[in-house]
Amino acid sequence: MILAGLTGNIGSGKTTVSRLFTMFGVPVYHADEKGKQFLGHDEVKEQVISLFGRGILGNGQEIDRKKLAAVVFGDKEKLSKLNEIIHPMVRADFRQWVDKQKGHPYAIQEVAILFESGLAGDFDKIVLVTAPESLRIGRVCKRDGVDEESVRQRIRHQWSEEDKIPLSDYVIQNNESSLLIDQAAVIHRQLLKDAGVT
Ligand code: ATP
């Protein structure tokens, strides 16, 4: 089985595209979702509180992801420290998940900061979802009910699409003029070939 990384900048449409691959029967691991789940684990919560203080807790004494985001996305070092806690856990969890996907020609990990985290070497093939920045910002503001500046703050921690395109094997343009399903179907067939299925 080969492993494909599915990545793209905030609001590019990774999750939307990942649903198409799920529809094709491909197993998809959602790394960013998993990372959010780990924040709910007691031992992770304690580590995060010891780094950033109790100000990141909500009324129910759980980690408030909006408060945490406001702290880490304004400070590169704090973001790295949070990633140092979460990323190894996600990586180990992904390996266990992969072991359960035997029988599939390939599996996908959807992960936003694949290149930024130095994960490119973990994958046999990389699929990048791109979309114009204005469209990405508009989508995220609408989806999350946040303002443009908070989206821009996150974008500043990501590499540009121009830097990621030459490092990717396949690129999907989610610009509302090219049909997503057609592009995903072509790449699915290509990944099957890459995996040795003819
Ligand atoms: P994030 O990095 O924030 O997790 P993402 O790359 O996974 O984002 P999605 O959540 O798939 O992006 O898409 C962002 C929003 O834009 C969602 O609300 C989604 O429904 C919408 N969207 C994505 N692609 C399209 C499209 N082609 N047409 C209309 N809406 C779209």
Main sheet properties: 5 strands, parallel
Name of the CATH class of the largest domain: Alpha Beta
Strands, count: 5
Total number of distinct structural domains: 2
What ions, cofactors and ligands are bound? adenosine-5'-triphosphate
| CATH architecture title of the largest domain | 3-Layer(aba) Sandwich
Question: What layout of secondary structure does this protein have?
Answer:
Layout: E1 2-8, H1 14-23, E2 28-30, H2 31-38, H3 42-52, H4 65-72, H5 76-99, E3 106-110, E4 125-130, H6 133-144, H7 148-155, H8 161-164, E5 170-173, H9 180-194
Parallel strand pairs: 1-3, 1-4, 2-3, 4-5
Helix pairs in contact: 2-5, 3-5
The chain binds adenosine-5'-triphosphate (ATP).
Note the main attributes of this structure.
single chain, 198 residues, alpha/beta, Rossmann fold, five-stranded parallel β-sheet, 9 helices, globular, binds adenosine-5'-triphosphate
Task: Please describe what this structure looks like.
- The protein is built from nine helices and five strands; from the N terminus they run E-H-E-H-H-H-H-E-E-H-H-H-E-H.
- It is globular.
- Helix 2 packs across helix 5 and helix 3 (42-52) packs antiparallel against helix 5.
- It has a five-stranded parallel sheet, sandwiched between helices.
- It folds into two domains: 1-27 and 106-198, Rossmann fold (3-Layer(aba) Sandwich), CATH 3.40.50; 31-100, P-loop containing nucleotide triphosphate hydrolases (Rossmann fold).
- By secondary structure, it is of the alpha/beta class.
- It has helices at residues 14-23, 31-38, 42-52, 65-72, 76-99, 133-144, 148-155, 161-164, 180-194; strands at 2-8, 28-30, 106-110, 125-130, 170-173.
- The structure holds adenosine-5'-triphosphate.
- Residues 8, 10-16, 32, 112, 139-140, 143, 174, 176, 180 line the site of adenosine-5'-triphosphate.
